[in-house]
Structure of DUF1980 domain-containing protein:
Amino acid sequence: MIRFLVLAGYFELTIYLHLSGKLNQYINMHYSYLAYISMVLSFILAIVQLYIWMKQVKTHSHLNSRLAKVTSIALLAIPIVVGLTFPTVSLDSQTVSAKGYHFPLSEGTDQAIQTSEGTTSQYLKPDTSSYFSKAAYEKEMRTAADKYLSQDSIQITNENYMEVMELSTTIQMNSRARQSSLQALSITTPVMPIANFCSASALSIVSRILVSMDY
């Protein structure tokens, strides 16, 4: 009976996350099909366990002690407890897929429409302030800015372009570092031609830096 309740809990939790639109806060929606497969399997296994319980079918088990049985049930119930009690903000898979950077939604954007269409409209402004206190964030930004301001020219690469973009929108880089160059920045997309997209992205990044340096 307990196994049936746990499996039914898996099924109902997945249904709830899907209908409430919160599924993307726990997994990358690119792999949402796995959630639907697990939902179907949970439902089928729950029916099997219900049949075994009602018919009193004897099954072979290696869980002989009471402690082993309680432990196995507790481990199986952990995902249900996490899904119902843990705060969803800290489990936002969109932030994880962006490697820690947060891109705010544009003003006037309807999230319901975006969810139904599978699209997003966001500012091209990386923001990591949510991971620090205000004082700690300002200290981190100032330390990072000093590293670039001490240079005669700034080279933007795959490794640092997100950091430079954030600095250019949060701290005004003054005339001590007026020159910037783009080096080996590769960005890929399945929608737009690679060359056009890279050119547009590079131009956007460099223009933001030049504006922040009062060009």
The first helix runs from residue 2 to 20.
